[in-house]
Amino acid sequence: MSFLLDTNICSAHLKNNRALFHRFIQHGGNLYVSHVILAELYTWAYGARNPAKRLNNIAGLLTDLKVSNLDERCAEEFGRISADLRRKGITVGGLDMLIAATAKVYGHVLVTHNTRDFKSIAGLTIVDWLGP
Fold first, then answer.
1. Among 55, 56, 91, 100, which is most buried by a count of CB atoms within 10 Å?
2. How many domains does the structure of the chain reveal?
3. What is the rounded distance in angstroms from the CA atom of residue 49 to the CA atom of residue 51?
4. Model-level pTM?
5. Which of 64, 56, 74, 55 is nearest to 33 (CA)?
């Protein structure tokens, strides 16, 4: 089983959340991020007074993770998700839909603490490693 880590999970890990250390060890080699999540992490880093420290932390994190490429299949799945949600009158942010599309295309379980924004996306498996 492979897992796509959402930005909030990566951020919690970078802040040394002890609950996540066990999960990272348990699922080592099967942990992924997408380019969207990397972009959000780099935005967080460059928004800091000391970007170098955060950039170093991200580089360290990436030694434990693989990157699932955002490709044409993800773009097509994004279109399906977006159209389906629009028909249902449900609003989900564009970046969240790209993250969900990536998880679905690669068969990853999405690990997020933001389950509310993803629960409306059909066929997406979600787990919250920070929840109760």
1. 100
2. 1
3. 6
4. 0.94
5. 64
Does 119 fall in a domain?
yes
Q: What percent of the chain has pLDDT over 70?
A: 100
Would you say residue 90 lies in a domain? yes
Q: What angle do CA 55, 58, 63 make, to 5 degrees?
A: 130
Helices assigned H by DSSP within the chain: 7-14, 18-26, 35-46, 51-62, 72-88, 94-106, 115-118
Q: Residue 123 sits in which domain range?
A: 3-127
In a domain, 132, yes or no: no
Which one, of 95, 128, 120, 116, lies nearest residue 23 by Cα?
Answer: 128
Per residue in 4-20, pLDDT tens? 999 999 999 999 998 89
Which residues are CB-contacts of 100 (< 8 A; sequence separation ≥ 6)? 81, 92, 110, 118, 121, 124
